[in-house]
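Hi all, long-time lurker, first post. I run a small reading group and we've been trying to get comfortable going from sequence to structure in the token notation. Rather than ask abstract questions, I figured I'd post a concrete chain and ask someone more experienced to write out its structure so we can walk through it together at our next meeting. Sequence below, copied exactly:
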Amino acid sequence: MAITHLPIFRNFPTWQKLINANLDYLLSISGGGGGVTDGDKGDIVVSGSGATWTIDTAAVTLAKMENRGTQTFIGRNTAGTGVPEEIAAATAKTMLNLSGTNTGDQTITLTGDVTGSGTGTFATTLSSALTPRKAQATVDFGASTQETETATVSVAAAWVTASSYIVCAPAAVATAEHDADDYSVEGITASVTNISAGVGFDIVARAAERTFGTYLINAVGLA
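-- Answer (accepted) --
Happy to help. Here is the structure in token form:
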């Protein structure tokens, strides 16, 4: 069988030039070497004649991020602004100024007038420096012809301090104008206000449906 293509090899430089010319032409008509045109490419926008590639906002999902180790956080512990870092649990505790095991119920310690320490439910002790005090006062809602909703009485109590705890409630004891049942019938309630150290406090009584006459109010406090 005769070989018919030997002339190609005899004049190799000429054929090489022809091939190169054809390759240059193909590259020129395909976009100058395969460059990316400007425009929205989905999660990326290309601009500046292919020089700038911008990732869309919120396009990077957790699944697309670098895998992280177990019990680690993404943050930054190195001083100054910079790239995010992998933060281990121990480092995060230091950053948050935490100490101890920090697992489960945490120990709570009470100090001052009420002391105690423990987790969840625990016993407390009332300071022996606090002395229980009590008082009873009469509030007057006025004449029966002018029923009112509130009545106030001032109680002298030299034992009162700035840290005193005082609560009060209707005594449910008969008076000249009312029997014991009237306290609930009239919806009598009471509260303490205007606590003045070394002087005393005010009791404000209220009647849900307006009332008249006098009622007894008990006050209990700690000094």
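A couple of things your group might point at:
The longest helix spans residues 12-29.
Residues 1-9 have pLDDT under 50 and may be disordered.
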